[in-house]
Amino acid sequence: MVEPVGLGRKNLLGMADLTAEEIFRILDTAASFREVNARDIKKVPTLRGKTIINLFFENSTRTRTSFELAGKRMSADVINISASSSSVAKGETLYDTVATLQAMNPDVVVVRHAQSGAHVFLARNLPRTVVVNAGDGRHEHPTQALLDLLTIRDHLPAMKRQGFAGLQVAICGDVVHSRVARSNAIALNTLGARVRFVGPPTLMPAQAEQAWGVTVHSDMESGLAGVDVVMVLRLQNERMNGAFIPSVREYFEFWGINRDRLNLAAPHAVVMHPGPINRGVEIASDVADDPKRTLILEQVANGLAVRMALLYRLCGGRHGDERAAS
Amino acid sequence: MNGADCILIKGGRVVDPAHNLDTTADLLLEGGLIRAVGRPDVPAGCRVISAAGLVVAPGLVDMHVHLREPGYEYKETIAGATRAAAAGGVTAVAAMPNTNPVIDDPSVVGYVLEKARVAGHANVHPIGAITRGLKGEALSEMGLLQRAGCVAFSDDGRAVMDSGLMRKALEYSRAFGALIIQHAEDSALVGCGCMNEGVTSSRLGLPGIPNASEEVLVDRDIRLVALTGGRYHVAHLSTAGALTAVTAARVRGLPVTCEVTPHHFALTDSAVGHYDTNAKMAPPLRDEKDRQALLEGLARGTITVIATDHAPHDIDSKRVPFCQAANGVVGLETLLPVSLELVRDGVLDLKGCLATMTCNPARMLGIDRGTLEVGKVADLVLFDPEEAWEVDAIDLHGSGRNTCFQGRQVRGRVKTTFLAGRVVHRDGT
After folding, report:
1. Separation CA A294–CA A271 (nearest Å)
2. Can you give the pLDDT at residue A1?
């Protein structure tokens, strides 16, 4: 296997695989692609002739749309396959689905799957194809972490910080089921930031301190004290009724992000959320709607740029060439 | 004496843990029985097999094996699993009842015994279900099952969760002196867990299974043993905490025993690596602290049995994302070499190590095997304790290739296996 020059690796399976240098290379490329997305004609020929398959075994609107747009804006042929419309519904095994895809020789397969490790299964069985993990179970969601890092990096000057080193980030809520939390914790660690997990003990992963070098807080008051970034996680509907937390109203009362709690963080602190948000569950509406504190829509915009950058680099492009290609 | 069906195994290191024997000697077999040990007079025409440099030991007894037949012949058959046993030097296996139909009726016991007899690779001793259909609702017919040939009772694959029913099982089993083998995992604490709960499960984003899932049931069961006096055995014990409980129960003189598998004493949950479904089994591989406790339990003699929990699967049951993969690994053909690591590491001496796979389980199950005593059936294994080889699933003899020891460099190779004086396996075949 000849490694593409763009990223020094074939696949993006998780943030655990990326060095700080590789992360910054992707972020720098993403920053240039934002310029393309601001144009009147938002299409460049960079990936013309490449085939990208978005293979989504789990419902997703924003991530799938973002990958689809990213591919299309770079002129790739993009196919979306979702579990409900595919032969998965007819009982085909994942192995056979993947073997069928391999026979069609796509350049990139972007996969989302409810099972942790499904991306590894695909990468193993798609030796000739670039595999991008768009979320595997509760394990990793690396492009979410990359777009979060890009968003944070834009705001570092306002936080009077030179870089990520020493940055304090609180990841709040349903950490145990969250691939977003894992990818961000790993990536922020790689870049030298300090991460806290904050939430009810039933929603914290086992031995998180040893697993990621984070600190764990069961109360928001200590968890948010002085932090620069508050990352709020979505509480899945199926966790709300007794098995993990007693009720939504108790959850919001003790772990929801509201004005008062946000005031415990640093004065310049920003709020992020991977979406879709549950207003009145993990985040109060007035916080969610405050554009000075909450970066949710910037995250979405950056998601598109990051995915363009990633696809471009995994397909062999170098930073600095992307505009020439346009 | 007539030399026609006579075999002399000459010059081997004869190890018979049942009689505390470890010496260089000859072994004379005749009529499928052990006729003499030492320097016997050899009848004319007797076949001579040199065992120089080899260990001559009783055929191994594995008290925890899944044969998959009847019902799951696409995974493995009685003939295939017992062929793997012979290749591993195992001449007797106790067969768990989670087949389809379940071994909860004498007719199924008869079916299994007949299939094993026809295959002729190893002795099979069925284990009956504790509860009918393994449903955990009503006791199975232990008396009739025992009379048909069952050597113990277990709902292996799942625990008897109902405390009242477990009490009744332990009580009722006393009428027949039967052994109750518990798969000690609290199903509510296991939940959707698919590997050991800890740093590795957290990093991989896999739901974890806490040690407490085993410990709470072992603790409960030991109290029920104290209440009832039933004979109780913990299958595939995996945690330090459960071992502490078993140790305390044995000190109190309660009829409590336990077994450990080679994978649990040789590996930790780090073997899951990048979602390797061949490192998935129940109970799961634990952490290094637990592994060390198991080694100590073996060294101190609290753990008296090594058993494989041999669980063959077809490729499709394992070629799926980790949480969806079937539990279980094959073990019959790696039992001896992986256990011999205990000897090289100074945990047990060779005699003590072999005891856990011969006389100890044989006594526990009440089967007349596991020794080289004169007059006993000549089930034995000849192995080279030093020969190095690499485990490769492709070389295994059974249908199930799901080994968690793939690529492991091991030492100790079975050269010949005898079943009632007949060669059932020769290395290289």
Report:
1. 5
2. 32
Kindly state the average pLDDT of the residues B290-301: 98
Q: What is the pLDDT of residues A265-280, one digit of tens each?
A: 999 999 999 999 999 9
Range of the domain at A192: 142-300
Only one residue has tokens 């078993």, namely B246
Residues of B with catalytic roles: 309
Q: For residue A2, is it within any domain?
A: no
Q: Does B189 touch chain A (CB under 8 A)?
A: no
Residue A288 shares a structural domain with residue A185 = yes
Q: Which residue has the tokens 């998601």?
A: A303
Q: How many CA atoms lie within 13 A of B11 on its CB side?
A: 6
> Which of B293, B287, B284 shows the shortest CA–CA distance to B243?
B293
pTM of the model: 0.94
Among A98, A139, A202, A244, the residue to mutate for chain B (most B Cβ within 10 A) = A139
Backbone angles phi, psi at B303, to 5 degrees: -90, 115
Alpha-carbon gap, residue B363 to B78, rounded angstroms: 24
pLDDT, position A6: 54
Tell me the shortest Cα–Cα distance from A114 to chain B, in angstroms.
10
Calculate the CA A58 to chain-centre distance. Answer: 15
- Considering the domain architecture, whether residues A268 and A206 belong to the same structural domain is answered as yes
ipTM of the complex as predicted: 0.92
Identity of the residue numbered B376: K
A315 lies in a domain?
yes
The domain total for chain A is: 2
Rounded CA-CA distance B49/B83 in Å is 22
Distance CA B327, CA B154 (A): 17
Low-confidence ranges of chain A (pLDDT < 70): 1-8, 84-89, 317-326
Nearest chain B residue (CA) to A15? B203
